Structure formats: structure tokens, C-alpha cells
Amino acid sequence: MHPNEPGGQAHGLAARPGTGQVSLVALTKRFGSFVAVDSIDLEIPAGGFFSLLGPSGCGKTTTLRMIAGFEEPTSGRVLLDGQDIARTPPSKRPVNTVFQSYALFPHLRVFDNVAFGLRRAGVPRDEVRQRTGQALELVQLSDYARRKPGQLSGGQQQRVALARALVLRPAVLLLDEPLGALDAKLRRQLQVELKQLQAQVGITFVYVTHDQEEALTMSDRIAVVNRGRIEQAATPQDLYEEPANAFVADFLGVSNLMDATVAGPSGAGAQVRLSDSFSVEVQRGDVACRGPAKVVIRPERIGVEPAGSPGSNRIPGLLTNVVYLGSGLQLAIQLASGHAVTALVPNTGEDAVSAWSPGMSVACYLPPSGLRILGGDPPAGGRADDPANGAG
Amino acid sequence: MRLTSRLGSAGLAVYFWAFVVFLFAPLVVLLIFSVNKSATPTLPLSGFSTRWFHEAFGNGELTGALLRSIAIALIAAVLSTALGIMASLGLLVLRGRAAALALTVLLLPLVVPYICLAVGLLILVQEVGARPSLVAVILGHCVIVLPFAILVIMPRLRSLDPAMNEAAQDLGASPLAALRLITLPLLAPALVSSGIICFVTSFDEFAIASFLAPSGQPTYPVFLYASARTPALLPEVIAVGALIIAGSIMLVVLAEGGRRWAERRLVGQTAGSGPLTAPDSEQPATFAIGNG
Questions:
Q1: pTM of the predicted model, to two decimals?
Q2: Residue A121 and residue A109: Cα distance in Å, rounded?
Q3: Exposed end of chain B (fewer CB within 10 Å): N or C?
């Protein structure tokens, strides 16, 4: 940590350029026989907003705690700007944490909470006062410096925790579901502000969340974690548009996953049999594979049309349920191919809303560019390359 | 809604007052006879006098025993509270069977009769070649009051967010500094309670002290037991007893006041510190980023 280094910027909280790059190399953590983190390799670029996204118990928090130093890896390395810090105690790492519970010190005033790290580092009294003041200003809590944490609202406490960590100018800021305890509206506002803050100070943020929307909104890059492994690490757009496997497709928003058989080439993509009598053209994903595979399409990419609409890639279906979402309608459709899918249609006016009712016959247009064959995650029993297998 | 019948509530009242009398009559008797003129504590009362207090404090043996007991109780209270902190911190990180076993061992003195402990300690002291001494009494008292310290400190420690200790270390504090700056201040109310309970228990203890205190250096309970059989000393003993009751009441009141004060300090609700505004509306301020 370099708490004595004078801040170049007026707010004095900006990152030193080019620092804060984290690499995890074959990182493993076992608790007894349970493997919480299973040989993870991950590059976290400097100065970005990086999210670890996954269901609870997937190992994302354990990974974060190994970067912070609260857990010692069973094996593997944690590199910060090229240096292995896996055995460095948390107090000696230029890494600070915003805890899920905030972990503010209830017996210390807000000012003393924020000044805690500076005083530990032996920063001179005047500089402590100045930098603590700046940090409180940054989170707009200057008027609350003399309060105890117990006298603040949840949102204010969260900001104290943020100021307390940022005031030390860490190379990396770790955030463990910091918005989890707040209500939905406040959370959405803080998501945007946290992202702005990160962009301004340029410190590497590593953000743990189980909320896919939160991760998509805020991150430059996301690593989807499942059962102690990284399923995919990519930009939000790539994760959403080009999920590497069924887990990623399913975890990032609602997806329609359909079992199908890739029969052969077709145009720019592949011919995929959804059932004995229905085939579609698929242009994206692992179009070179053959045999049983999963095909995925986002609800908003399905075009719902009146029954009997002509054209290819259209499957007849029965509307089984209609949910009014305000901005749109969520339609549950049983396709004639045997698959149940969910479609989203925009609310374009009263006619659009009243046009649909359960029991209607419809046609679903599954555009070739919206369908995607998922590779790398073959169904149980492995992928058969024998075309006859699925031709039935 | 009536919870009891008229007869039932009358019965409850009788029971309540009988209970109060049973509890406090001995203390009241002591207070009354401490200022009674007569040298024998018998009715009728023979008039007000503070003579026995003067005589008690003129009695070097009595005051010596009293001071000895206070010193022993203070040392035992401080020692066992410190040990209680350490034991509680250790119990916090133990899991499963090891934790249960360690706790059982630590709390065992609660269920072992003091007299057995006393005999055991006496034999032990002699086996290691030492002689009965006040140090032996202090160590013996530490054994019996440590369970109280643990029972008071551990629940408080368990209620603290473990992330607070991690946060302190994350911000650059060594584990020891985190303990000193965060954990101990937050434990303060429990430490005060532990100190008082340990002090009172040690001060009161007879069996161990009677076996381990060297002859000529009795603790106060041991001295009392010996003098209660000397009629001439009885009025003085009663006077000191009255003082101790008064002192105990003061101690409890002070401790409770101190505990409340400490708790208030923790949440920061200092009474009368101006308008205590409720937490402001949840409207998040936009982060004011100073631009260079």
C-alpha cells in the first residue's frame, strides 16, 4: 500500500495508471473434501469493472476472499501486477474490500471508520483529515462525519464502507454483493453510480454478485462461475449474445433451451431438426457440430405471428399463458415440435395487448440469426456424431 | 383480558410479598442490628449506635482480612476475564466435536463441588512442593470463576459480525491491532459484567480459601466463619456485613449504569446531543467526483 503517495487528482482517490491487474493461476480452495474453487484461471484487466457472477455457493465469494487474503488458497497463485500475493496477509495487500454486511465499526464515528486505514498506515494527522474529508465528499456524506454507523440508513452505510475502502487508494477494490441488502429501486440507482465512480477513479473493481442484471449493467467483463469453475469470461454483450454453454445461456436472463439434432449444413449455418416434422436453419453457435445438441433463443428474438403465417423457420404453436409485464407481454407457447418456449412481445399499444389470449393458435418465427447451437456442453451420454442417431 | 381470577391474583400478591420477605429479611436484619447499641443481636432493640462500625475498622485482623479478600477478588477477576477473552476467541474458531469438548472442559468447575476442588488443589499444591499461599487462593479462584467469565463473554463475541475483524485487517491492522481496536471495545459491556461476576464470586468464596489460605492470613469469609463463633466479635462482623451489602448494591447500580452508557456509546445515541435526526431518506446522492 502507498498511503503516503500524494494524489495526482484533485479528489486524490484515482488509481495509479496501469496497476491493479489480477491474474488467478490454477487457483484452488478445498474445505475438507468440498472443492469450493476448482483450479480457476482468470485474467482481471487493470482499471476495469470485473464481475464474478454465479449462483450462491458457486465459489465466487471464496475466490474474492482469496484475492483479499481472508482465505489461503489450497494451491495455485494470486498475482497482482505480476507478483504472487497468495501468502501475503490481508493487512499487507494493496487491496481493499467492501463487505456484504458493510462491517462498519459501530463504536467509531463515520469519520473514524473512514480514517481507520490511514491511521493504521501512520499517515500524518493533517493528511488523514484531508483525505478522509475527500473520501466522505466523494460519497456525499460530509455532513454525517460525526454520526455513528447505527444512525445511518442502509444506503448511507454502504457508502461509508465504500469511502473507507477507497480512501486507501487500493490497486484493487473488492466488492462482495455490496448492494444485496438494499431495496430494488435504490439498488438500481447505486448500480449506475458505482459504475460511474469506478470509471472516474479507474481502480480495478472486482464485484461479486448473483444478480445477472446487476452484472450486465455494471461490468466491463464478467466471469460466470459455477461449481467452483469459470464457465465463461467475456464482455456482457458477448455473454448474452454468445453464451458458451447452456448454463451461461440460462443464467444470463431467460433463455429457451431446446433439445434438437443438427442434421447438416444449410445456407450460412446448419439445418437443425427440432422434431421429426420440424426443422429450422440456425446460423450462430457451433454450426459445424452434428448430432444431438441444444439450441437456444432469447425470448425477445422470437417473433410471434398469427397462425398459418408463411415462410421458413416458423413453427406452429399454442399460446398457453399470457403475462402482462407493463413494457411488454410474456407469452408461454407450446410448440408443435414439442418444445415449450417463452416469448416477449413489446407493448406497442392497446391492440398489441388485447391481441393475445391463452388458447390461441400462433406461429413462432425463430430467426436463423437468433438461434444458436450450443457447443462445449454435450447432453448426457456425449454427442453422437452419427446423423442417423437423431434422424429417427 | 383477565389472566387470573380475583382469588388467584390475591394469592399471587401474597406469594410475591412472601418471596420478597424471604429474600431480603436476612439483609434487613443485618442492617438493623449493625446500628443496634447492644452487644448481642437480640430483640428488643436497645437504641441507635455507630459504635460497631468504629470498632470494626479499629480491628486490624478484620480489616486485614477484608482488604486481602478485595485484593484477591480483584486479581482473580482481572485474570479470569483476560483468560475468558482468550478462551472465547479460541472457542469461536473451533468447530464441531473439538468445540464441544473444549467448552465442556472449561465449564467443568461449575459442576464440581468447590470443596472437592479445594481438597484437590491443596494436595496439588503440596505435591509440587509449594505451601498454601494467597497465590494458591487466587489460582484456585481463577479456576472456579473462569466458567462465569466465558459464559458472559462468549455470547457477546458470537454476536459480533466476524467481517468486522476481517475489515480491520483488510484496512491494514494486524490481527492484534484488530483485537485491540475493534473486538475488545465492542466486548466492553461483557467484560465489565464478567469482571463484576468474577469479583463477587471470588470475594464470597469460602471452601477453597479455607484450605489454601495460609494460617494467619485468612480471607474475609474465612475470618467471618471463625469470628462468628466468637460472640464478642459478632457486632463488628454484622457492621461490616451491612457495609458490604450497601457496597454491593452500589456496585450493581454503577455497573448497570456503566453498561447502559457503554451500549449507548456503541450505537451513538448520546442522550440530549441535539436533534437526533432519523436516518435520512434513502435517496442516494450522486457521487461527487472531483475532477482534476
A1: 0.77
A2: 19
A3: N
